[in-house]
Amino acid sequence: MSLFKARDWWSTVLGEKEEFDQGCLCVADVDNSGQDKIIVGSYMGYLRIFNPHPVKPGDEVQAEDLLLEVQLREPILQVEVGKFVSGTEGLHLAVLHCRRLCVYAVSETLGNVEHGNQYQIKLMYEHHLQRTACNMTYGPFGGVKGRDLICIQSMDGMLMLFEQESYAFGRFLPGFLLPGPLTYSSRTDSFITVSSSRQVESYKYQVLAFATDADGRQETVQQKLSSGKKLVVDWVLNIGEQALDICIVSFNQAVSSVFVLGERSLFCLKDNGQIRFMKKLDYSPSCFIPYCSVKEGTINTLVGNHSKMLYVYQDITLKWATQLPHVPVSVKVANLHFSWKFPGNGNCIAFMWMLLLFDFIFCLFVFVDPGSSETVVLSVFLKGNFPPSELEGNCVLSYDSVCSFTLGIPKFAQCKFKLPLRLVCFPAQPSKSANHKLTIDTNKPPISFLTIFPDFADPSEDDQANVLGFQFLTGSKITLLASKTSQRYRIQSDQLEDLWLITKELTLRLEEHFKKQNCKDFACTFSGSVPLQEYFELIDRHFELRLNAEKFQELLSERAIQFRAIERRLLTRFKDKTPAPLQHLDTLLEGTFREVIALADAAEENQANVFQAFTKLKSATHLVIMLIGLWQKLNADQVAIMEATFLPLAEDTQELGWEETVDSAISFLLRTCLSKSSKEQALSLSSQLSMPKDTSRLKKNISLFCDRLAKGGRLSLSTETPTQQATVVPGGCATIPESDLEERAVVPGSTAAFSHHKHLLQLRISKLKKSIFELNNFTVEKFCAT
């Protein structure tokens, strides 16, 4: 996960539950006013044009930013802007539907009222397509001057070319099975696509225009609907994987290149199809865009992936990575001109990256007036029908000095914040019975809840001085009781994970209360049993959902293979000049399609359940760490080691899950600081982390971990073996004979292979001791290198 997160400069919500694809975003001067606009089309048929303006932090997007919104009643597959109307070199908007191509003129009418100017679109012409469209490209085909021609690729592999208002001709791609990305290279006057055989293919426009039918007979109207011209490929390159997108790059300081984004690789090709370079990607990309680099002879590329990350490459070198709030669908680069007042420097042009996400448009990076004070207002909403695992967060600010627009050094500042408990729960009636109960001991007399919980307790009710009820927004209830005769507090609830936030809030408020009274010896302890069995049930539930996710993935893969096989047979029969009976292949195709959709819906629901289970597991893990810390009176460094051990992942994935990561981390501690003999230190750890078959070894290692702590073991990152003292600590975990644990528990590992996890533990400790302000003197390259 990246240390950096993208900052919103401007964003807006696009409808409700609308869907978008790569071709649905375009940035161009569509109204010929001299300034770029953002054009977005959705599968719901909505066409929107935006002119973004900077707003003060916390303010909503101005209504004037939306220049035009119109519903075209048909799904919008792609939007492009070019010189599509004869007799003028003005830019017009081309909108591709499934069976129509429409070209519009966008115009502005000056308004006489406070609402501002009015924008309209006027249909210049349209083409009704005989075949279902997939995508399109445009350019000066054949070297024409002052106008752009349009080429549309159909779902059955026909390239349909339009010379503005008139249809020119159509040609079938040889050996076609499924449509791929399509683009046009004006330098070579060629169309470049990637076929279903995983080959990059280039077709010259002249060859395409002069190609003839194989039999040379005159076409009839019926033949135009069922057949097209055949053509010969110019060059072919086998890349060995399906392509997501193609882009032609031609800058003054860089060689003209063809960029191809594959499923696992990024290719850069020469005009003749030879590979300039390629970059293997260790993630699943979703979109990309090459753009001009400041270094001569190189090209920068933005690549977004399905893990909500955005990467910046200079050729094959990774220069930057940032975290995004959503999975990017399309990314564009534009120059938007705004006036920013800098002392002594006049106006400055802001350079931004724009990303189309599933529901939002985000514009990243902005230059702020030096010396100004800005207030950022954030809105926080509950995600899912379950309580969050924590209310703390970090706010990281990156900023540049005035001169750093070209050669400056970026600086960073960080602050921690805590959201109020009242944000996720509200007062409720206490409950007398509960399934889970915890007792926290203190060394001071109990404090009235009217004093430490003034935002929840009602002063008019005296019974709330010792009993207080909480109810989360999700419905679960927690009861807090203070003993009248002893120095104890009890927290109880029907769910183990719900105890965490209230227990944490109680200890924090008690510490703040006694700190205000200059009481330095206040301490909380825990002498009960750590609820490991209930904790293990949450682990099993989370692991079971991960196993279900694997099963859904396998079933989806099988049905997808079956679906493609049926598609191939149907396409072969449809393209045959003497069609054979379908033999119920269409029925089988429809049934398989329904199975794929049902499996996809089930997999999506299971993924939501995995996220919910992981959140509950994190809450329970926080609680177990806290109870063990109070039970064994661990210091801050030792608690930090436990947090790094039990909470190493901010996000749980199928490739790297919580169970295998925590199991390896605990095994490392059992082999080092918690080991009993040199025999245990000699055990090797596995070289790779993989999803286990079950959770039995993890649960045994957790039990053994607690048992070693109960017998005097102490957590440390030192490689020396500490001498364990045979001390007896009251309470703690349910006793398990250590001999049985050691016989059954396997401590896997290799010292070299697990050095990375040791580094993670050390990194978490160092973060507690050092401030992020030390990064101020680092350059971007040095910071990324570290």
From TrEMBL:
<feature type="domain" description="PTHB1 hairpin">
    <location>
        <begin position="530"/>
        <end position="632"/>
    </location>
</feature>
<dbReference type="InterPro" id="IPR028073">
    <property type="entry name" value="PHTB1_N_dom"/>
</dbReference>
<dbReference type="Pfam" id="PF14727">
    <property type="entry name" value="PHTB1_N"/>
</dbReference>
<dbReference type="InterPro" id="IPR055362">
    <property type="entry name" value="PTHB1_pf_dom"/>
</dbReference>
<protein>
    <submittedName>
        <fullName>Bardet-Biedl syndrome 9</fullName>
    </submittedName>
</protein>
<feature type="domain" description="PTHB1 GAE">
    <location>
        <begin position="364"/>
        <end position="417"/>
    </location>
</feature>
<dbReference type="InterPro" id="IPR055364">
    <property type="entry name" value="PTHB1_CtH_dom"/>
</dbReference>
<dbReference type="Pfam" id="PF23339">
    <property type="entry name" value="PTHB1_CtH"/>
</dbReference>
<dbReference type="InterPro" id="IPR028074">
    <property type="entry name" value="PHTB1_GAE_dom"/>
</dbReference>
<dbReference type="InterPro" id="IPR026511">
    <property type="entry name" value="PTHB1"/>
</dbReference>
<feature type="domain" description="PTHB1 N-terminal">
    <location>
        <begin position="1"/>
        <end position="337"/>
    </location>
</feature>
<dbReference type="InterPro" id="IPR055363">
    <property type="entry name" value="PTHB1_hp_dom"/>
</dbReference>
<dbReference type="Pfam" id="PF23338">
    <property type="entry name" value="PTHB1_hp"/>
</dbReference>
<dbReference type="Pfam" id="PF23337">
    <property type="entry name" value="PTHB1_pf"/>
</dbReference>
<feature type="domain" description="PTHB1 platform">
    <location>
        <begin position="420"/>
        <end position="527"/>
    </location>
</feature>
<dbReference type="GO" id="GO:0060271">
    <property type="term" value="P:cilium assembly"/>
</dbReference>
<dbReference type="GO" id="GO:0016020">
    <property type="term" value="C:membrane"/>
</dbReference>
<dbReference type="Pfam" id="PF14728">
    <property type="entry name" value="PTHB1_GAE"/>
</dbReference>
<dbReference type="GO" id="GO:0034464">
    <property type="term" value="C:BBSome"/>
</dbReference>
<feature type="domain" description="PTHB1 C-terminal helix bundle">
    <location>
        <begin position="634"/>
        <end position="709"/>
    </location>
</feature>
